[in-house]
Specification:
Helix content is about 20%, strand content about 30%. By secondary structure, the chain is of the alpha/beta class.
C-alpha cells in the first residue's frame, strides 16, 4: 500500500492539571458498552510502539483508564479530512458518540491493566498534600496512565484515527489524535500532507 507523506502543523495548548474523561466519571459503568473489536486493540498496539511511556519511561505494565476519552475541542483539520480521511473521521465521531469500556486481555505487546476513572481519581488524590503518591504506590512501574478513544476506521479497515493521551503527574502529560495505516498486516502511524493536528501538553 502506498504510504502518504506528512508534514503536520501542530497547535499546542498547555494544561496544568491531570485530564480525566469527564463524562465517564458520571457514567454508570454497568450501562456502558464494552469495546471488544480486536482490530482496535491492534491499532493501540501499533501506536504504543512509538509511545513515550513505552520508548522512554520503560514501563513494565501500562495503566489504561477503563472509560474511553476524547478531546473534541482540539481535533485535526485540513484537506485530507475532507477527502481520503473523511470517512475515518466520521467513523471516529460515530464510535465515540458515547463512552465505552476498554477491556483487558488483548495483545498490546506489553502487559496492561484497565482501571475505572473513579479508582484513578481516588489513587491520585487520596493522599493529602501528596498528589499522585498513592497512584505510584499502587502502580509503581506504569509511568502514569493512558486515556484512549475508540478507534475510527475507513470502510476497508486500512486507515484509522485514534485519540491517545497520557498523564504522569501534576505537570506531566500530553495527548493528540493519531493517523494510522495498515501496512503488511500491521498498523503504523501514517503521514498525510495538509493535516493540521493539535496536541495538549503539561
Amino acid at each position: 500500500m502506498k504510504r502518504t507523506s506528512l508534514t503536520p502543523h501542530i497547535l499546542a495548548a498547555g494544561v496544568a492539571t491531570v485530564v480525566l474523561c469527564g463524562p465517564a466519571v458520571r457514567a454508570q459503568v454497568g450501562q456502558l458498552k464494552p469495546m471488544d473489536d480486536p482490530e482496535a486493540y491492534a491499532v493501540y498496539a501499533g501506536l504504543l510502539q512509538i509511545a513515550w511511556s513505552v520508548r522512554f519511561a520503560h514501563v513494565k505494565t501500562l495503566v489504561f483508564q477503563q472509560e474511553t476519552g476524547t478531546r473534541w475541542e482540539c481535533v485535526p483539520s485540513g484537506k485530507p479530512l475532507e477527502a481520503e480521511w473523511k470517512p475515518v473521521m466520521e467513523n471516529l465521531r460515530e464510535e465515540n458518540a458515547g463512552v465505552k469500556l476498554l477491556q483487558a486481555g488483548f495483545a498490546l505487546g506489553i502487559p496492561y491493566v484497565v482501571v475505572p476513572t473513579a479508582d484513578l481519581q481516588a489513587s491520585i488524590h487520596g493522599v493529602p498534600n501528596s498528589p499522585w503518591s498513592g497512584f505510584y504506590e499502587r502502580y509503581p512501574d506504569s509511568g502514569g496512565f493512558i486515556v484512549a478513544s475508540a478507534v475510527g476506521f475507513d470502510p476497508l479497515t486500512r486507515r484509522a484515527i485514534v485519540y491517545m493521551a497520557y498523564s504522569c503527574g501534576p505537570l506531566c502529560g500530553g495527548g493528540s489524535y493519531h493517523f494510522l495505516e495498515k501496512v503488511d498486516g500491521a498498523w503504523h502511524e501514517a503521514n498525510s500532507m495538509g493535516v493540521v493536528n493539535c496536541f495538549w501538553a503539561s
